[in-house]
Each structure stands twice: as C-alpha cells, then as structure tokens.
Design brief:
By secondary structure, this protein is α+β, with helices and mostly antiparallel strands. It is about 25% helix and about 30% strand. The two termini are about 30 Å apart.
Length: about 100
Amino acid sequence: MSTAPYENIRVRVTAKDAETLRTLLREARPDVGGRPRQGEDGTFSIDAYVTPEEAEALDRDGVVVTTLEDAAATGRARQAEVGEGDRFAPADAVPRGLALKVKDA
C-alpha cells in the first residue's frame, strides 16, 4: 500500500459536440461532477475528478482537458477545518445506544 497522498484533480472536459463527449464518457468512464453544459460556441463540457494520468488519457481529437484544481489538496484543507468531538453535546452527556461502556485507562 502506498503512503503517498492520493492525487485527484478536477478537470473540465470540453468536446466539440455532444456525440464526442458521450463517446469519451462511455469509453473512459471518469468520475463526473454535475451535468454537461453547452457553450455558446456549440461545445459541450463537463467537470470530472481524475488522476493526472487519467486526465492525459482524456485528451484526444475534438476534446480539450483543462485542469481546474487539485481536488485532493482542497479536500485535505477542508478536513483540517473540521473540529473533533460533538460540539452540540453537553459536557455531562451520558452515551446512549447498543455499545459497551468502557472507562479510559
């Protein structure tokens, strides 16, 4: 198992027409975010979350791949903002549920 952080980038895939984009999505099956959008110039685009290697594989005739952000780094930054514990629980709350109660050593 690799100890390197997971690399994931958000890219915008823009195709010259709808059929080219459909073919690309069928063949490559990237993890897409949202729905395709049609540009004023007739192109179709969609955002996808892929590795840098997968982004290179998406680039072909009639398709332009634009890197928008390092999604893994953005995710790690958002996770750093999250606190620990339940900030809404009162300090003297008694745990409830189907678990064993154990004392800290």
